[in-house]
Amino acid sequence: MSDATRGDSADASIDLGALGLDAGAEVMLGRALARCDAGARVDVRGSAPDLAVHLPAWCRAKGHAVVALEASAGTVRATIEVGRHTHARAVGATRAGRPDPREPGAVVDAPDPRWGLAARGALVEAGTSAVAFALGKKDEVWADEAVALYAQATAAQWDPDTAIPWDAAIEHDDVVEDAIVQVMTYLVENETAALIVPARFLGQIHPHFREVMQLLAVQVADEARHIEVFTRRAQLRRAVLGTSSAGGQAS
Amino acid sequence: MPGSTLLLGAVAYDPKVVTIWEGFRTWFAAHDFDFDVVMFTNYERQVEAHVQGHVDVAWNSPLAWLQLQRIAERTGQSAHAIAMRDTDRDLTSVFVVRSDSDVRTLADLRGRTLAVGAHDSPQATLIPLDRVRTAGLQPGRDVEVRYYDVLVGKHGDHIGGERDAARALAAGEVDAACMIDGNHLLFAKEGVLPAGTTRVLAQTEPYDHCNFSVLGDPNREPIARFRGLLLAQSYEEPEVRTLMDLEGLREWLPGRTEGYEPLARAVAAFRTIDDFVAKVAGSKG
């Protein structure tokens, strides 16, 4: 099948071959029409079984007009006029900064709440709803070092299963083991706090500051690993953990 | 008409209907137009309320339009379709069979089973069954008709019955199923009728769908202003685009009535709205 090319009197033409609109031809057709100006005429040809039914239905839903259609010997030939509103979504769209933070002006001082979850550097359509981010100003959140810190964090990931010799012999007596379990219990609580604190910031940061958001996310994942490791050590010889004190929690 | 607020009647066939009309209310208010919506769970009550004067304009299904038009004729009033969506024009319905079916024409449906939507669905039941009738087969006698009566009263707006009819076809429970042309494509994408497993057996002639209906002079205020504002809405406006995407259109067009002939023939042949029209026209007095 061929892509959109200039036809005789049409502005473009596309041959869908035997691919039906219900099997992916919609993607080809949509792409071909999106490259044309509103009002352009596009010749469409195809031999998929129900194309003569699907093509007008698809055009009606998308706002394009079928100005001619003939079906014979299993082949459909149609002319579509590209709808007037085909490029409406581009009207009022704004670029949400630039993806590379080293580019001047890439990370803006006050990202628009209506950029929402859009990636930094994306073209955001007009009409999106504002998403509330309590932490949405560059001077509150950003540090240029976040980029390098995140790279460092992802490079230094370790596997608890292989990094710690879980099979190492335990030869000390019960009193010492109980003390170790108590230390593990306190550490789990510590690491839980260390997970929750960045996690509570995480959802509040405007995604425009993605490297800071990413760094905190890796921090949270790190703390999860610490919780896992300390709990596992505590359970090597005991079925329950130690004490969580009111004073410890308050601290 | 209470004060100068224009009251629109709309049937809430889906929760998004609330979102849509609340959104349009905000838009109309921003254009200094006093507008409110009354929502109904079914078209019959909306038509009755319209005739009683409780709403000024009704966002009507094609069947509700015909009900209103017939009642208006009987009570010495005029009914007008003042606007509609671009997507309300020139729809067709299709009869669908499994790809390996030996049914090749509508006539081959003799003695077979045909799945349709809800009893009151113009697109998935009434118009296709009339097509069967004009092909020389009496629905119910020459062809077994299996109705998928989901949310009767909503005139097939939510397409639930249509989808169930398609599922029955895919499951081998019926020989053919009726649906709007665009839904054959939609159901393929949804996996209800995977691509290549069915084919279109026949297609109806084109027909029109919903319209904004009024009784009496369509050029009186505030109806004329409502129509003017509606037709001036632009898909290029972001707030309008969101609402239009929910409502399923790219632009509003002037109303027209010539596209209701296929449905009018169907309701005349099957006499489906006679009792309701007589009841409401009689009570209007």
Question: What would you note in describing this structure?
Answer:
The complex is a heterodimer of chains A (251) and B (285). Chain A has 251 residues and is an alpha+beta fold. Chain A is 40% helix and 12% strand. Chain A has 8 helices and 6 strands. Chain A has a 4-stranded mixed beta sheet, covered by helices on one side. A two-stranded antiparallel ribbon of chain A has the order 5-6. In chain A, helix 4 (145-155) runs parallel beside helix 7 and helix 6 (174-202) runs antiparallel to helix 7 (210-234). Chain B is an alpha/beta fold and 285 residues long. Chain B contains 10 helices and 11 strands. Chain B starts with 5 loop residues before the first strand and ends with a helix.
Entry summary:
Chain A is of the alpha+beta class and 251 residues long.
Could you give the topology of this structure?
The complex is a heterodimer of chains A (251) and B (285).
Chain A: E1 12-15, H1 25-34, E2 41-46, H2 51-62, E3 65-72, E4 75-81, E5 94-95, E6 123-124, H3 138-141, H4 145-155, H5 160-163, H6 174-202, H7 210-234, H8 246-250
Parallel strand pairs in A: 1-2
Antiparallel strand pairs in A: 2-4, 3-4, 5-6
Helix pairs in contact in A: 4-7, 6-7
Chain B: E1 6-11, H1 16-30, E2 35-40, H2 43-51, E3 57-60, H3 62-74, E4 79-85, E5 93-98, E6 113-116, H4 122-134, E7 144-147, H5 160-170, E8 176-180, H6 181-190, E9 198-203, E10 211-215, H7 223-232, H8 238-247, E11 252-254, H9 261-270, H10 274-284
Parallel strand pairs in B: 1-2, 1-3, 6-7, 6-8
Antiparallel strand pairs in B: 3-10, 4-10, 4-11, 5-8, 5-9
